[in-house]
Design goal:
mainly beta, Pantoate--beta-alanine Ligase, Chain: A,domain 2, 5 domains, Immunoglobulin-like, five-stranded mixed sheet, six-stranded antiparallel sheet
Length: 750
Amino acid sequence: MKHIFLRKKSLGIGLIEVLITTVVVAVGLLAIGSLESGLIGSSRSNKTQAECLALANTKIEQLRDTISMLGYEAIASSDADESIVGITETFTRAWDVVLLTDPEAKNINVQVAWGDASIERQCVAQTVIAYDNTGNSGLVANQAGSGGGATSPSTNAESSDEISEYVDISPGTTEGAVVTVDEQTYIALKSVSDTIQKGVLANLCADYTDPAVTLLDDPDLLPEEQVKVRRIDYDGIAGDEAIELFEVAGDYCIPRIRFNGGVIIPIRGIVYSGATVGSGANEQPLSVELFTFNASETGAYCVFKPEDGSRSEPYVCYVGGNCTGAESGDDADVLQCQTSPVSALKVGEGGWRGKVGLLGVADGNSGGRNVCLGEELIGTPATLDTARNYYVRRGGINEGINQAYSCHNFLIIDVQPTEAKVSEECIIRKDELESDLNISLRLASKTIQRTIAAGNNIFVPTANETACYATGDSHDLSVTLIVPNGTSTLIAGGLQSSLGSNCTVSDTETNYSCVELNSTAGEGTLTYTGGTSSGNTCTASQSYTVTAGSSDRSMSLAVTCTTNRTISVVVNPDSSDTGSISGIWVTASGASCSSSLPFTCTVASDWTGTITASATCSGTPSTVTGSIGVSASGTTAAINLDNCAAATSLTTPLLTWQGTSDPKSISWPAVTGAAEYKIYQCTELNDNNLTSCVPVISGSSQTAEGLVIGDPGNKNTICVKVVAFSGAVDSTPSGVMCIHQKSGNYSYTP
């Protein structure tokens, strides 16, 4: 028998397989290397672009911060490129300044580049800056589609200041937790990153005394949105001109804003969402909780806390006004001026002006969402905006709003490819929301301008609710002004109704359109104040009767014009002044006086009266004045101010320990001329012995001649000193007083 053995063939890796594997692996490694290189290059490019923009915007802000006339006039094009060593590249920076006229302003263009400075390796920032005065720089150049102007130093006009204080805390701290740093209490904020977290200064609300804080009485605020407020005298001049606003966090109050003009102005409305997420059967309404509110410039406080899944939620933004010259209000109501109205001298005319709108919404067609305002419901808008611009126009200058606004709603929609499509989508989504929510959705214009034809910018105690009127709720009253023959063209006027109708110029200055509610009825008065191109003042006043109804009406109003004259005013300090004066202003009853040099007052041709000049004195008294009578033919006025004496020096507070039980308190005799006492304090921790430290300013002050330090804690020392302050000058510091405690035993020095 033959045996046939089948030998199994040996298996292995041949040369061809090795070569193929090598090629595949090499190609893969090259692809990974190329991808990694691309990612690194892309990341570096993004960082470089971001740094480029930051350098351009930094220069813009440096130039914008110019607050004096001399500084503004000195703004000019750069002589040579700046070289700046950045994180990723070395940059060059230059800027061009072009003087604009009618109105006067400066157009600034900042260019930053790196490498070969090709179009891909450069960025540009541009702005327009105009100068009006330190406290209230005018908006002078109209922005396309916004109706406002380009900002010079600040449209806040020093009507408010942010007063929150922040500190670094341990990363990983629970948001909202109370932590102590250097014996100060802070509320933990949301972590910025794994290594960075901040805390915001907070104190127990009950610790705010003299005066205490009270809840802001605002019906639009929900319990979880409550804020507290108090009126204080911050500038040391008679009257509680400032209002401090605190965010409430449990038992704690977080200082947020100090309003300097004596009144808080709310801007209110509702944010609606007509946008969607998902598609087809999975399409869902987009919640408004994804967005946040913002008011341009510092010193505004907005409350907007939507519930999860909400398609509509109210908002309110608080800004600062100016109570100078206002009617008597209510000390207990911070949304009104005081019983004796007063404002800090530094606050500009009318207080805040600027923009209020939504963050987290991409404007234009760059993605994200679009926002519908009044213009989008009328037709194709000239521009797409996410905010409204607020200002008062007086004498050719933009000023603060000095009046509250209601029903200034926003509607968010899905992004559209063109402005025309945005308008179509706004109308569709508005109709859907009105049906789904059973509401009447009203959208105000993106430009909110109030014109003051003559007189000063005085706080208006009632809110402007024009935007609350919907089609069908109101009708039009057309008013034609009848001007005497031979009168030059009317310009810059204003028509007002005592019945609350909102009147605006329709086409020419002689034709006005007023919105009247259908429910309005009674006797009213129409009042017109304006001027002519030749400088005359024109007025008119007429009573009229309104009956409830929906029909449009028309009427005429006879105007009387009088010739004006301009009085040039020179203000002279007292020749024997030992103190210094600043912040001069001029007033006269029945006259319109300028707020900066050269001072002029515009009056009727037959006007007689008294012109008064005032100024802030660095010493005694805090305000100096002077006045002069002017005849019916006078065109000049020279006013001599009262004497401004240098501040009288204050004696040093003499501190002594008081009490028979531990821990003792400190007291001192009253210092003549002192308005308050500044407290300096420091702490030495974990020391067995009393070891003095150097007290530093604590930020607190008081009027009482006594101080309770409290228990410093085991092995700790607290040292204090006190400085008397007159409102203009400090005394020399008192001696340092220290208290130490160890195991319940107290020691004192001296």
